[in-house]
């Protein structure tokens, strides 16, 4: 692509070397290792390293245009474009390079601490029932009909985002549902994508390693609704669907309502879209949903009140986009499982064993509260906390797990660069029940009962101990890793799948 087309709309502070129509660019890259002959390399000041240090590598790999923030000296045949913010510029270059693909489809962003992935699955199912071709970007994978790609991040980097949306549009996708993480808003991954609608599910503690305070975390989410969404070129009657029962959702409506035209959903509060009655069981949810003067019933195999909120979020977005009610009902009914979210891995004569992705205290509380009414025996919870992530949530999760479980097994969950035992010690701080500091599967078979906990750092051993000690009337919850098929220890990413491990132990009991 011609450099002058690529640089359209970009605020250039200075340019040296060949320029304008003389230069043709073969690809845009933000990682020097991906540069090939005639690439354009954007140097980004990152959190771990500075892209400016890789400019020479990029040129060695064939880059002939460098976009950067700092003054650099380059051979005369290399074009250097100086800009104020490399990350911001990458988004604009990506939009230009892939010919602005988000304009060509309906795009819905799903935001909030918990429930994003689940809402994307429900919306995808509704859109399919309505006959739309739907693409999804999120934690589990990036996909559109005929293709599934690995998802390195929940929300892709701007360049990858624009590339994938272009690919979707070229393959006939008409509707995009994207999880938008707070990191993605803060790191400007989505600024150049035009969304038709944003959903806000809830806000509770997570990611304070990155945002430091809940206020900053909220502000990152809010920026999407107050700047990114209205900054786009799409105009709809409603621009956001917000959980009116969530305190931060209420604040979001107060602070951005005038710009973003909210449609509210909820159970407790008077909301535009409300579940007026519902029935929750281990077989799923049945609910009566009221929309203005009209009402209709929905049913789904998803379990728990929190999933009713997720259904309401997806229904609200669909109503805002004028999807026919019949398609909404069919879509919700067809949506019976989200990988790794309260996924049952046991058979009918065995204890109920669920694998779930709860990795915050709010998620863990809601899942355990949803399972508690159905317990006939004990609830045994196995969980750990990820390394190099929000440390503040560790004691909170410890407290919730032991409060709602009869037995908790503390183990490891992606320790990354941290010592697994020191993560477990952080969890223990929140546990005020009688503690048995070190444990093994033998401690369990010796008859540990009550609201105690044991520590079994090896996740495989921990899952095995839980399943071996469970009686048929017990419920076992294996939380935190859900669909993940890896365990990150140090720099190593080893294959590990809670579901496979649990099934293996279930077969042998
Ligand atoms: C904190 C964070 O989000 N960091 C993301 C960010 O990294 P960064 O820009 O700081 O990159 P860096 O490693 O410092 O490198 C700086 C620059 O040098 C470049 N470089 C580096 C090495 C080299 O040899 N050559 C080279 O050019 C890099 O490509 C980069 O452009 O941009 C990278 C490229 O897009 C991301 O991969 C990276 O995500 C890291 C891996 C990450 O773990 N992110 C998590 C926290 C995250 O984003 N999570 C959210 C939410 C999860 C959820 O709750 O659902 C998500 O959306 O996934
Ligand atoms: N609406 C909700 N409110 C609170 N907890 C929820 C809700 N929906 C799901 N959960 C819990 O949170 C976990 C993660 O759900 P899900 O993957 O849908 O959320 P997410 O926002 O995509 O999470 P992530 O930020 O990790 O991508 C679930 O396994 C469940 O334990
Ligand atoms: N998307 C979340 C997922 C956490 C899942 C948990 N298994 C962990 O590794 O901490 C994060 O990156 O914080
Ligand atoms: Mg997700």
Automatic annotation (TrEMBL):
Q: Give the record's keywords alphabetically.
A: ATP-binding, Cell cycle, Cell division, Cell shape, Cell wall biogenesis/degradation, Cytoplasm, Ligase, Magnesium, Nucleotide-binding, Peptidoglycan synthesis
Q: Which reaction does it catalyse?
A: UDP-N-acetyl-alpha-D-muramoyl-L-alanyl-D-glutamate + meso-2,6-diaminopimelate + ATP = UDP-N-acetyl-alpha-D-muramoyl-L-alanyl-gamma-D-glutamyl-meso-2,6-diaminopimelate + ADP + phosphate + H(+)
Kind of enzyme, top EC level? ligase
- EC? 6.3.2.13
Binding locations of meso-2,6-diaminopimelate: 389, 413-416, 480, 484
Cite the binding residues for UDP-N-acetyl-alpha-D-muramoyl-L-alanyl-D-glutamate: 32, 153-155, 181, 189
Write out the pathway annotation from the protein's UniProt entry. Answer: Cell wall biogenesis; peptidoglycan biosynthesis
PTM statement from Swiss-Prot or TrEMBL: Carboxylation is probably crucial for Mg(2+) binding and, consequently, for the gamma-phosphate positioning of ATP.
- N6-carboxylysine found at: 221
GO biological process entries: cell division; cell wall organization; peptidoglycan biosynthetic process; regulation of cell shape
> Per its Swiss-Prot or TrEMBL entry, what cofactor is needed?
Mg(2+)
Please give the Gene3D superfamilies that the UniProt record associates with this protein. Mur ligase, C-terminal domain, Mur-like, catalytic domain, MurE/MurF, N-terminal domain
Entry's Gene Ontology cellular component terms: cytoplasm
- The residues that the entry says bind ATP are 112-118
Name the job this protein performs. Answer: Catalyzes the addition of meso-diaminopimelic acid to the nucleotide precursor UDP-N-acetylmuramoyl-L-alanyl-D-glutamate (UMAG) in the biosynthesis of bacterial cell-wall peptidoglycan.
Family to which the UniProt record says this protein belongs: Belongs to the MurCDEF family. MurE subfamily.
NCBIfam families assigned? murE (TIGR01085), PRK00139.1-2 (NF001124), PRK00139.1-4 (NF001126)
* Name of the protein described by the UniProt record: UDP-N-acetylmuramoyl-L-alanyl-D-glutamate--2,6-diaminopimelate ligase
Q: Which gene encodes it?
A: murE
């Amino acid at each position: 692509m011609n450099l002058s087309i690529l640089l359209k709309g970009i605020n250039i502070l200075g340019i040296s070397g060949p320029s304008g129509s003389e230069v043709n660019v073969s690809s845009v890259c933000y990682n020097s290792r991906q540069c090939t002959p005639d690439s354009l390399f954007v140097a980004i000041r990152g959190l771990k390293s500075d892209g400016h240090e890789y400019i020479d590598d990029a040129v060695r790999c064939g880059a002939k245009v460098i976009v950067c923030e700092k003054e650099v000296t380059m051979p005369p045949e290399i074009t250097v474009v100086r800009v104020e913010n490399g990350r911001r510029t990458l988004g604009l270059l990506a939009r230009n390079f892939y010919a602005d693909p988000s304009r060509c489809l309906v795009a819905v962003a799903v935001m909030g601490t918990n429930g994003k992935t689940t809402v994307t699955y429900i919306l995808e199912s509704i859109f399919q029932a309505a006959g739309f071709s739907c693409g999804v970007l999120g934690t589990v994978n990036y996909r559109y009909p005929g293709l599934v790609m690995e998802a390195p991040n929940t929300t892709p980097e701007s360049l990858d985002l624009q590339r994938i949306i272009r690919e979707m549009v070229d393959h006939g996708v008409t509707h995009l549902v994207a999880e938008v993480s707070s990191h993605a808003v803060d790191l400007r991954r989505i600024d150049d994508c035009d969304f038709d609608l944003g959903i806000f599910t809830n806000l509770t503690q997570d990611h304070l390693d990155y945002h430091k305070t809940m206020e900053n975390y909220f502000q990152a989410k809010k920026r999407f609704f107050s700047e990114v969404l209205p900054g786009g070129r799409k105009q709809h009657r409603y621009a956001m669907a917000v959980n009116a029962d969530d305190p931060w959702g209420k604040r979001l409506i107060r602070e951005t309502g005038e710009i973003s035209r909210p449609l509210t959903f909820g159970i407790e509060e008077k909301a535009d879209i409300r579940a007026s009655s519902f029935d929750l069981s281990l077989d799923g949810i049945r609910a009566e949903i009221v929309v203005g003067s009209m009402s209709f019933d929905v049913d789904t195999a998803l379990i728990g009140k929190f999933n009713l909120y997720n259904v309401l979020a997806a229904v609200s977005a669909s109503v805002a986009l004028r999807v026919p009610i019949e398609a909404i009902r069919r879509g919700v009914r067809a949506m019976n499982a989200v990988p790794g979210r309260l996924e049952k891995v046991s058979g009918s004569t065995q204890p109920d064993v669920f694998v779930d992705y709860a990795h915050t205290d709010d998620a863990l509380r809601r899942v355990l509260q949803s399972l508690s009414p159905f317990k006939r025996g004990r609830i045994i919870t196995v969980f750990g906390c990820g390394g190099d992530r929000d440390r503040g949530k560790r004691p909170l999760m410890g407290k919730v797990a032991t409060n709602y479980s009869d037995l908790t097994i503390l183990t490891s969950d992606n320790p990354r660069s941290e010592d697994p035992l020191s993560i477990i010690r952080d969890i223990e701080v929140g546990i005020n029940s009688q503690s048995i500091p070190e444990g093994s599967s033998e401690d369990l078979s010796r008859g540990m009962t009550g609201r105690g906990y044991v520590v079994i750092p090896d996740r495989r051993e921990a899952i095995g101990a839980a399943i071996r000690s469970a009686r048929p009337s017990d419920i076992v919850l294996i939380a935190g890793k859900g669909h993940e098929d890896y365990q990150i220890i140090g720099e190593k990413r080893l294959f590990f799948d809670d579901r496979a491990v649990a099934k293996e132990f279930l077969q042998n009991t």
